[in-house]
Amino acid sequence: MLLDLASLKPNTCYHLMTQTLIPRPIAWVLSASDNGELNLAPFSFFNGVCSGPPIVMMSIGKKTAEEAKDTRHNILSGREFVIHLPAIAQAEDVTASAATLPYGKSELELIKDNELVEFPGCPLPRLKAAPVAFHAKLHEVHYLGNQKQAVIYAELIQAYIDDAAIEEDEEKGRYLVDAKAINPLARLGGASYTGIDKIFSIARPK
Length: 206
Fold this sequence. Notes:
The protein is mainly beta. Helix content is 14%, strand content 36%. The strands form 4 sheets. The chain has a 7-stranded antiparallel beta sheet, with helices on one face. Strand 11 and strand 12 form a beta hairpin.
């Protein structure tokens, strides 16, 4: 089937993209509202774009034609935030936190595993159960499309990685992260998710 994307409605394109650009990592973002209430929401139009400085990209839309999503509002207010990478075991909580709530009401009340712990050096805590968390700050924002989708570039300040999933390779000056130990949750289309089923390596050409 050959599709002319310019002839499709934006919502149709969205569902087509989310079912073909797969799997996608999930940024589970903890941010603070104007009154200090913690907001938690997942975004899967997300990935790394630069390593010096370390920068990731998140595309965040609106609740309505006039009202920005809470996470977008909080990040663009200049406050620092936390990007978690959820594990498979957190799939139900990730889905629950995607609920649309009035601004200032916390999604943490909707999830089961909502224990927070201190994130040293960060003004916000992190979710204890998430195997990876990044302390982040706004770097830049671009607006795209007719609905002014916010493409947010976030600089990563520090990272938390579960001790069971990381070790240092002093010889190469790198860190080795065990993907299976993280057991990351990845997004497909609609309400579908996936995880890591098989890991394999292929030697690169010399």
